[in-house]
């Protein structure tokens, strides 16, 4: 059956130019509403979306329903049908645990069925049994494959098959579709309305050719039934009488029987937007082989038709392969070099193996130690008994999850709500018999906590600010040491961080790591150093004020809390005085240079003079400042 004959048998054909998928709510008549395997209501289903054009040139957006992603899992030997339901329930639980929802009851497996087929690797004269697992979300296939292969489900290593295949690519292989080829549909339903964008209000430069042809070749209403509500068969038969390249669809003038309800809204601005089910795709019926990609064959065929219409007699055929010179068969210098090197490596390896015939049992990577590393049995697909070969479906057989629109277009709700009660009862029976290694799943899944990341960033920022504050205190301590000129070396270390501690703090990357390294002895050491600093400050005040007031009387007159308040007040007054002086200098500078708004144009000597004026002319005796403040207040 050629492509052209399939196009003539199809109601509409859409060229596969771009394809993607999305998750949506199930639509009655297009998607299953209840899972026949588990008996639960379906909330979200995958939908494949295709953008292309029809054979008449109309731009279309096609939504394909009833296609679920799947993987194959080997069926162990001596296991009954209940193992399939336990596998499904265990896989659902394992996926929920890997997503951080161990208590959730979300079902990710649409259904699981036993199939028979020949394994791809090795020689197998008989059929083997596999379990075909369908999922709702295509993005969960890889996660499920990792859990099965790691032994987290059913306490066995289950090697998945076809888990690496992309969802859209898997669909194209199953239904014999190729890029730039047409998807031939026996039935379809069109969406109502039209989406407008900002370009619709602009006057077109030229009118598309399919709009001109549409006026001459369109659906003749006289061919329809004279009944008030024509049935879908008569409407489709009227379209089938028109040639595919002249078959134009006008959604505004179509009968309601081939339209979707108004609740199903449009998603694209294409001229046509239609929905179909996988059972209505007839491309998989074409089993004829071709030397060229069918998608390219369709392009060559279109070009032949175009040349025939314009009257070009030049036959169109693919160009033959250009002749290759005889020197192309000779080996290149690069090939010779790498061949000699590979041969030498193989020779050296074989020589080493002959010298070391006995494997090292202490090497964990040795071949004899491989079985020791595997704690779970590896499942190999069991051979299918002769009685089940004819009963089980083939592994490559297409499963119609939803019936064709020709069967459901008249009674969509009733057909979609059909549920196999026996399968759903078995699923609920084995729902609690799950075998999942939760510790293994949590150890393999690298869950990242966003709150911990933000806390790490905050701790690093706090650590950076702490280092800057420590450096500022050290610089201030050095300046105070030069001004006050203390007599003892112990006074120089009052505001300084020990060198070892400073180096340690600079080498630590984050505040979180600092917290983890601090222990109770270190906290006691910090407290003792703080007490020592306070004692040194008091002793320093006592030594410098020895000729003013006796030490005992001064301690009674000025308690510790009062001294701290006065000290803070003195420091605040000093800061305010410096701020006022700076403001005065800036004000004077503006009056001296009224036309200079840029600081770069000011005389640098002015700022140097100001800095010299700020240099204290007397010793920075905090005790004297406090005494002066007391006298002023009195």
Task: Give a quick precis of the structure.
The chain is α+β, with helices and mostly antiparallel strands and 634 residues long. It has helices at 3-9, 82-98, 141-149, 167-174, 209-214, 232-240, 294-310, 333-355, 370-373, 386-389, 405-408, 412-416, 421-429, 438-444, 450-484, 499-507, 511-517, 520-544, 551-557, 560-592, 604-613, 622-633, and strands at 12-15, 18-24, 45-53, 59-65, 70-74, 109-117, 128-135, 182-185, 189-190, 272-277.
Provide an overview of this structure.
- Helix 2 crosses helix 3 and helix 20 (about 560-590) packs across helix 22 (about 620-634).
- The chain has a 5-stranded mixed beta sheet, with no helix packed on it. A 3-stranded antiparallel beta sheet has the order 5-7-6, with helices on one face. The protein has a two-stranded antiparallel sheet with strand order 1-8.
- The longest helix is centred in the last third of the chain and has 35 residues, at about 450-485.
- The protein has helices at about 5-10, 80-100, 140-150, 165-175, 210-215, 230-240, 295-310, 335-355, 370-375, 385-390, 405-410, 410-415, 420-430, 440-445, 450-485, 500-505, 510-515, 520-545, 550-555, 560-590, 605-615, 620-634, and strands spanning about 10-15, 20-25, 45-55, 60-65, 70-75, 110-115, 130-135, 180-185, 190, 270-275.
- With about 625 residues, it is of the alpha+beta class.
- Strand 3 and strand 4 (about 60-65) form a beta hairpin.
- The chain contains 22 helices and 10 strands.
- Residues about 410-420, about 445-450, about 485-520 and about 540-560 have low confidence and may be disordered.
- It has 3 domains: about 5-195 and about 255-290 and about 395-425 and about 435-440, DNA Polymerase, chain B, domain 1 (DNA Polymerase, Chain A, domain 1, 2-Layer Sandwich); about 450-545, no CATH class; about 545-634, no CATH class.
